[in-house]
Amino acid sequence: MSSIQHVTEDTFQETVLDSTLPVLVDFTAVWCGPCKMLEPVVEELSAEWQDKVNVVKLDVDHNQSVAMKYMVMGVPTLILFQDGEPKERLTGYKPKKHIVKKISPYLK
Predict the structure, then answer these.
(1) Catalytic site positions
(2) Contact call for residues 99 and 68 (beta carbons, < 8 A)
(3) Whole-structure pTM over 0.85, yes or no?
(4) CATH value at residue 41
C-alpha cells in the first residue's frame, strides 16, 4: 500500500494549491498498468525529496472535476504545482531520471 497522501476534490485546494512547497501530483487510476509501474518511482522520489516537495496522488475516476480542470487526458500524468500554478507536466510512464531532470529546477 502506498504511503503517499491521496488528495480529493475537497482537499486539493488546501493540500496542493495553497502549499508553500512545490507539490507533485500523480494523477492515477487503480486500473492503469503504467500507473502501477510508476508507483515505486513516485514513492522513491517522495522519500528523496522530503522537505523539498510534497508528493500526492489523485484518483482521476473519483475526482473527475480536478482532472478535467487540468486537462488530464491520460494516466499516469504527473503535474508539478508551485505557488498554486502548474509548472511541469509529464504524461505516461517516464523513467526516474527523466522525472528528476524536469522537476529538479523547482526544488529549493
Answers:
(1) 32, 35
(2) no
(3) yes
(4) 3.40.30.10
Q: Are 22 and 81 in contact (CB under 8 A)?
A: yes
- If pLDDT is split at 50, 70 and 90, which confidence band does 7 have? very high
Question: pLDDT by residue (tens digit) across 10-64?
Answer: 999 999 999 999 999 999 999 999 999 999 999 999 999 999 999 999 999 999 9
108 is a domain residue: no
Contact call for residues 81 and 23 (beta carbons, < 8 A): yes
Q: Is the dihedral of CA 94, 77, 26, 19 positive or negative?
A: positive
Contact status, residue 6 vs residue 66, Cβ threshold 8 Å: no
Structural domain count, the chain: 1
Q: How confident is the model at residue 3 (pLDDT cuts 50, 70, 90)?
A: confident
Q: Let me know if residue 40 belongs to a domain.
A: yes
Count of Cβ atoms closer than 10 Å to residue 73 Cβ: 11
Strands, sheet with 23-28, edge to edge from the N-terminal-most edge strand: 5-7, 54-59, 23-28, 77-82, 85-91
Domain boundaries, position 9:
5-103
